[in-house]
Amino acid sequence: MTSNTPVALVTGASSGIGEATANRLAKAGYKVYGTSRRGAKAAQSAITMLALDVTDDASVSAAVGELIRLEGRVDLLVNNAGFGIAPAGAEESSIEQAQALFDTNFFGIVRMTRAVVPHMRRQGSGRIINIGSILGVVPMPYIALYAASKHAVEGYSEALDHELRTRGIRVVVIEPAFTKTSFEANTIDPDATLDEYRTVRASLAKVFSQSMASADDPDVVAQTVLKAASAARPKLRYTAGVAAGRLSLLRTFAPAGILDAGIRKSLQLDD
């Protein structure tokens, strides 16, 4: 490895967006370390896998420590690890399930950031790319907790970028819409279901399944990550894919009532 080879760390890199991102970065010339809770399993030869659980402080510290021991630096952190809850009423998830969702989707990013930023500050450079969601900008009913976790990522990232840019570090959020394999593979069922929502759950399961059939490939998101990583002056937010771009424009320019009606129509909900 040459001394000017940038080093990237990608969480949740065993499948979906994380795997596609790790491979895309490796092809672009990064020395890539991927992580998964299962650790070093069979992987692309260009990717070194590290064991990491983003909900565990000691695991985060150990993985970042190992990376620094091996490479002496980290130039890019891609916070991708996360999961969702299948469409359901917000009250159909227990507090414990809501906390578990935030522990991975939001606090996992906080843990990784706290572990990596001191090294980036010492270098005087670095980039943190957080995989958010267009649902962190345009919240959808019946996935309220997931949307809330991604809203938290948006706010944290924007504030953090203000703090760190004078130290040579930039923070970016990527906002995909539905992406094939990743969301479904990392979605769990609500743990406090109610008969009240049975019909709408079944209806939304069909709507979401149809949406996934035409969803973007994970490499669409990976290409956007590479664009954000390579930009000399990165934007704070990048949408990934046509659907996400369209929703972002509607959120920005459409009257609230039109956006509201559009969301309900797309989900086949009664007014």
TrEMBL record:
One Pfam annotation reads adh_short
Molecular function, one GO term: oxidoreductase activity
| Keyword set, alphabetical order | Oxidoreductase
Q: Which organism is it from?
A: Pseudomonas panipatensis
- Tagged with keyword Methyltransferase: no
Q: What Gene3D superfamilies does UniProt report for this protein, alphabetically?
A: NAD(P)-binding Rossmann-like Domain (3.40.50.720)
Q: What is this protein's record name? A: Short-chain dehydrogenase
Query: Which family does this protein fall into?
Result: Belongs to the short-chain dehydrogenases/reductases (SDR) family.
